[in-house]
Amino acid sequence: xxxxxxxxxxxxxxxxxxxxxxxxxxxxxxxxxxxxxxxxxxxxxxxxxxxxxxxxxxxxxxxxxxxxxxxxxxxxxxxxxxxxxxxxxxxxxxxxxxxxxxxxxxxxxxxxxxxxxxxxxxxxxxxxxxxxxxxxxxxxxxxxxxxxxxx
Length: 151
Prior knowledge:
By secondary structure, this protein is of the alpha/beta class. The protein is built from six helices and seven strands. Strand 6 and strand 7 form a beta hairpin. The termini are far apart.
């Protein structure tokens, strides 16, 4: 086997191995994520709806914290109404959401109770345990306070 053939074989093996690492979940745009890749950072999961006035007010704050602290946290949204993909994309645009939105509600998979009041925000520690359940609109400051209080 020539050197070129060996290199190509190794590349094909590596590509095959990478393909085996399937995503645990997808966002509304179809990007795949693995929960293990999110470990080591805080995870903020915000439930929202287009008909929720406080949610509309809160989204810019979530956009800010997500954009300013990517080294410290991940922000994901959940469209409470769980519409079809086209409606979800329209809702994300309408709300001006700049962070990823779960394609499907992750509550059951994460062992969380689906909220009954909006907005609701779950804050998970870098180790993946529930740190806080926040009901009502949050600000960048209020979320940073929760994170700084630590687990």
